[in-house]
Specification:
The structure holds 2 protein chains of 2 kinds. Chain A has one domain: Rossmann fold. Chain A has 6 helices and 15 strands. In chain A, the strands form 3 sheets. In chain A, strands 11-10-9-12-8-1-6-7-13 form a 9-stranded mixed sheet, sandwiched between helices. A two-stranded antiparallel sheet of chain A has the order 2-5. A two-stranded antiparallel sheet of chain A has the order 3-4. The mean pLDDT of chain A is about 95. In chain B, about 25% of the residues lie in helices and about 25% in strands. Chain B contains 8 helices and 16 strands. In chain B, the strands form 3 sheets. Chain B has a 7-stranded parallel sheet, sandwiched between helices. A 5-stranded parallel sheet of chain B has the order 13-12-14-15-16. In chain B, a hairpin with a 4-residue loop joins strand 6 and strand 7. The termini of chain B are far apart. The chains are: A alpha/beta, B alpha/beta. At the A-B interface, strand 3, helix 3, helix 4, strand 9 and strand 10 of A face helix 3, helix 4, strand 5, strand 7 and strand 8 of B. Strand 11 of chain A pairs antiparallel with strand 11 of chain B, so a sheet runs across the interface.
Chain lengths: ~250, ~300
């Protein structure tokens, strides 16, 4: 079984982003970048399926400029077998990303595509579902458990009221939620070995996908700041203020 | 302009997100048509007809829609969508699941998690865990929008809109519902509660979350948690408030033993009044709290329960 894991290079989750002074976008100059945390969970799940003998090959794919190869190398160091880099400097929305991934799915015919449920930069939560729709695959989003058996995959999903389990025929798309697994770290020998694993670089413009988005970013503003409040000295004072000053309890 | 609003429901109850969606749709202008897709969902339809501003309620009542599987719901909506300029759904785990499929099948972008409608084609949405607020404009021929319900007021319930049944049946064979394990609780749902009390890593373990129960009972509050508490295995993920959990904006939010990571603040900083109880006076949660109490939660919580 072949697993395709699309990954995104995103701002490191510990970094608090700043808005540019001219309000055109956020400022990513010299900001630390990393693999999107939900994508790390996707890579980890693919590796575990390979360790269980369910998967035979793991391909990581990323879309963007040359630096995304750092994240592809990270995926290879964690245990993926080979990488694909779709090279483009264009500013893409989820729909264009999903269309490019659709081309990769056509090239590779994976049995399972595992993606992070959302990227922590755009916070869109769209790509996996869009890819599923474009390729006609069923989807199991926000997965907290994935079991492959008899040509099907059972996915337990984190939903607002609790958990839901669905059964999907393969090939299928799965997107990862936080509790699916705890990603490992790459060991030094594996990081060295990853340098020799192949990365196939393809030019996005050659894939026959319209990369123009109809969505424009008009402006980006910093959020309204809450003013810090007061420190109260005791529970009694707190309750008194909530009752008489804020009037939110009676 | 005509807007199709997807009713959020569980076949039994219409969820309050729906009234907020309708309110958001009113900012666009034009006819508002609500779609109820489910099975044996008559009570939901009844509630939907009462929402102010709704011109009509479309009813797709069929077992194919019982579990609102995204493969089926998306196919249903794209067939209905020809009549509409906009489709609105709540940015819940239901809406987030099927809406991107709708957008992709219509070959348009989706605008996710909208907190403000500027005009029929321009929307405001948070990015980077709410550390930046983006205004985006789309020239797509249809606007596919998920709405952060907590950011909008609710439309009233003084209407009696007509209903129309939809006999389109879409039942994909590639996906099937197996089971659901829903959290049973007498407490209000997080996204609907006026008061929320949340625990973080400072709670130390899952058993200690019981310390929040008595306070929640007295305040009629929902109980939430930070991602740190979920990651540590103290409580289930459906209690998570934050960037990757639920986004809430109650009248009163009490954060207990929560340091205030940006991912958590993204989920609760629009609450009207925020209270923080934490023993670390340097914790970032105090920078957003209206009332901060520096102290050991194991001493302060019993006192708080007793004084309410």
């Amino acid at each position: 079984m072949k697993i395709l894991v699309p990954i995104k290079r995103a701002i490191d989750y510990n970094v608090k982003v700043r808005v540019k002074a001219d309000n055109t976008d956020v400022d990513l100059t010299n900001v630390k970048m990393a693999m999107n945390p939900f994508c790390e969970i996707a890579v980890e799940e693919a590796i575990r399926l390979k360790e269980k003998g369910v998967a035979t090959e793991i391909i990581v794919v990323s879309i963007g400029e040359k630096p995304v190869q750092e994240q592809i190398r990270t995926g290879l160091a964690l245990g993926a077998d080979r990488g694909i880099h779709i090279e483009t400097g264009a500013r893409l929305d989820s729909l264009q990303i999903a269309k490019l991934l659709q081309k990769v799915v056509e090239q590779e015919s994976p049995d399972l595509v595992i993606l992070g449920k959302q990227a922590i930069d755009s916070d869109n939560n769209q790509t996996g579902q869009m890819l599923a729709a474009l390729t006609g695959m069923p989807q199991g989003t926000f997965a907290s458990e994935v079991n492959v058996e008899d040509g099907k995959v059972k996915v337990t999903r984190e939903i607002d009221g609790g958990l839901q389990t669905v059964e999907l025929s393969l090939p299928a798309v799965v997107t990862t939620d936080l509790r699916l697994n705890e990603p490992r770290y790459a060991s030094l020998p594996n990081i060295m070995k990853a340098k020799r694993k192949p990365i196939d670089v393809q030019n996005a413009a050659d894939l026959g996908v319209n990369l123009d988005s109809n969505v424009t970013l008009v402006k980006v503003m910093p959020p309204e700041q809450r003013k810090g409040g007061v420190t109260v000295g005791s529970v009694e004072e707190l309750v008194e203020k909530l009752k008489n000053e804020a009037k939110v309890i009676s | 302009m005509s807007i199709l609003v997807y009713a959020e429901h569980d076949n039994t109850d219409l969820k309050p997100e729906t009234n907020k969606l309708v309110h958001a749709a009113k900012q666009v202008g034009g006819d508002i048509i609500v779609l109820v897709a489910g099975a044996n969902c008559g009570a939901v339809v009844e509630s939907a007809t009462k929402i102010d501003g709704v011109a009509k309620v479309l009813v797709a009542d069929n077992e194919a829609y019982e579990h609102q599987l995204p493969e089926n719901i998306a196919e249903l909506i794209i067939e209905l969508a020809t009549d509409y300029t906009h489709v609105f759904a709540a940015a819940t785990t239901t809406g987030k699941n099927f809406m991107p499929r709708v957008a992709a099948l219509l070959d348009v972008a989706q605008i996710s998690d909208v907190i403000k409608v500027e005009s029929e084609d321009t929307f405001v949405r948070p990015i980077y865990a709410g550390n930046a607020i983006a205004t985006v404009q789309t020239t797509d021929y249809k606007k596919i929008v998920t709405v952060r319900a907590a950011a909008f007021d609710a439309a009233g319930n003084d209407n009696s809109a007509p209903t129309e049944s939809v006999d389109i049946i879409k039942a994909a064979e590639k996906s099937a519902f197996v089971s659901a394990e829903l959290t049973e609780s007498e407490r209000p749902e997080l996204t609907a509660a006026d008061v929320i009390i949340s625990g973080g890593r400072g709670m130390q373990n899952g058993e200690n979350f019981a310390l929040l129960n008595g306070i929640a009972d007295k305040l009629g509050a929902a109980i939430g948690a930070s991602r740190a508490a979920v990651d540590a295995g103290f409580v289930p993920n459906d209690m998570q408030v934050g960037q990757t959990g639920k986004i809430v904006a109650p009248q009163l939010y009490i954060a207990v033993g929560i340091s205030g990571a940006i991912q958590h603040l993204a989920g609760m900083k629009d609450s009207k009044v925020i209270v923080a109880i934490n023993k670390d006076e340097e914790a970032p949660i105090f920078q957003v709290a209206d009332y901060g109490l520096v102290g050991d939660l194991f001493e302060e919580l019993p006192k708080l329960e007793a004084s309410l």
